[in-house]
Design a protein that fits this description.
The protein is of the alpha/beta class and about 280 residues long. It contains eleven helices and eight strands. Helix content is about 45%, strand content about 15%. It starts with a strand and ends in a 16-residue tail after the last helix. The structure holds nicotinamide-adenine-dinucleotide.
């Protein structure tokens, strides 16, 4: 199947970057976000990013003009998703929110449209009942910052048609990514499962008073040469995202995760990391 028009649902940290990356690589893209003020913010962010690409000599004025012509942002889901070939969902990592959205989408999208979720941990089979035909549903998990990071996990569930996985995999390659295609789904997929072990150990060391978050990061960055330690990474991806994940695990019956109270307290105080200027580190 040929992808021409892409709809990205959710214009937050990830959605806006996935969308703009797709537009830069020649796709017609609409970002849909239901929250007041977000469409305006996404438009202003895209303007600033593209102006920066010209200033740095990475894109020509003509390339930027063509990208802008292909990139729109709106708050009407039917107009955004109704004629899309590929819909990429990038709303908050909350099961109930995604489930509700997918049920609405099922009534709107074309029967041959592919739906891919950018969820960090949830396998797409959790949502297969939201769709009359789930053979065109899969995971497509980008890494942050999605305009820069090349790695993407495309994950097929037992309900996913081979053609769906291949089409999304080829789409990722066409926007400059280096994807892998997993034909057996598992929560958290590939890279997040691997780093999850390190993150868990980092939180254990902090919870039990062996190290501070900043010392865990120094151990990883200086001792192991990781580009970022787990707490600095949490600031980048959003402390609220980690909280949503830990909360879902805890409420699902898992033992209380290490550093749960610390992370919950930070979310309540609005210390969400880079996006709010404060997290484990200060950015303003
Ligand atoms: N933050 C990361 O580093 C990262 C990396 C990979 C994947 N992800 C995944 O990407 C998804 C989005 O994460 P994010 O960090 O961009 O979140 P975010 O909070 O920055 O953005 C979410 C956006 O979705 C919008 N939204 C919420 N409900 C909506 C709805 N029903 N319809 C339309 N828009 C809606 C919000 O207004 C917000 O703009 C999550 O599933 C997350 O797990 C995040």
């Amino acid at each position: 199947m040929e992808i021409r028009k892409v709809c990205v649902i959710g214009g937050g940290l990830m959605g806006r970057q996935i969308a703009l990356c797709s537009a830069i690589h020649g796709y017609d893209v609409v970002v849909y976000d239901s929250f007041a003020g977000v469409p305006e913010k996404v438009r202003a962010w895209a303007e600033e990013y593209l102006a920066g690409r010209i200033a740095k000599g990475k894109m020509t004025e003509a390339e930027v003009a063509a990208t802008k012509a292909r990139f729109t942002v709106g708050d009407d889901m039917e107009a955004a998703a109704g004629d899309a070939d590929l819909v990429i969902e990038a709303i908050v990592e909350v099961y109930e929110a995604k489930e509700k959205l997918f049920r609405q989408l099922n009534d709107i999208i074309r029967p041959d449209a592919i739906v891919a979720t950018n969820s960090s941990y949830m396998v797409s089979s959790l949502f297969q009942n939201c769709f009359g035909d789930a053979s065109r549903l899969c995971n497509c998990h980008f890494y942050n910052p999605a305009l820069v990071m090349k790695f993407v996990e495309v994950v097929q569930g037992p309900h996913t048609a081979e053609e769906t996985g291949k089409t999304v995999f080829d789409f990722c390659k066409s926007i400059g990514k280096i994807p892998i295609l997993m034909k057996k789904e598992i929560a958290g997929f590939a890279a997040n499962r691997i780093t999850g072990v390190v993150n868990q150990e980092g939180r254990y060391l902090v919870q039990n008073g062996y190290l501070t978050p900043q010392e865990v990061d120094i151990a990883c960055e200086e001792g192991l040469k990781y580009p970022m330690g787990p707490f600095r990474l949490m600031d980048l991806t959003g402390v609220d995202l980690t909280y949503d994940l830990l909360k879902a695990l805890y409420e699902g019956g898992a033992p209380k995760p290490d550093c749960y109270d610390l992370i919950e307290g930070m979310v309540k105080e609005g210390r969400l990391g880079r996006k709010t200027g404060h997290g484990f580190y200060d950015y303003v």
